[in-house]
Prior knowledge:
This protein has helices at 22-34, 56-66, 95-98, 105-119, 129-139; strands at 5-10, 40-45, 71-74, 87-90, 123-126, 146-148. It is α/β, with parallel strands linked by helices. The chain is globular, with a radius of gyration of 18 Å. The mean pLDDT is 85.
Amino acid sequence: MAEPLKIAVDVSSLSGGSAPRGIGRYLSAMLAARRERPDVEVMTFDERAGRWRGSAADRAAAEAAQAGADAFWSPAQHPPKASPLPCLQTLHDLTPIVFASKLTRDEARHWRRLGPTLARADAIVCPSRSSARQGVEHLALDEARVHVVYHGISPEFRPIDVAELDVPYLL
């Protein structure tokens, strides 16, 4: 059997208030699904653990490379500016830019500043065609590097058979 692919993952979204919310749940489900893949080994790095100074994601990617990882995945909004490893970045959406308002002005500015950093990723995954299109249109991401990979990986998001329901099902 071939050596497993070693993926370093920034798991800082599992710390603090992010854990029960969108990105934390997405990351938890992805890590759980990985257990079914013997050909993938996950190495976790938490930028909030206080081990890094400066750009935490850059330091995490460098540490992952030293630990023997084959690639680095940043599932949240903290991509490394430079990575010695091939880098995969998840772009969930660009709501602050697409639906601009006074309330989202600072966050929109943040995303525009991140655009060039995201563009350096070897691959960018988005949960929908809409998010992928937003990244290409608003951040000038290379369309060839942007891929749609849907988030619904948890068993609770599987299609159900209406016959399985005990009560009437109404929309």
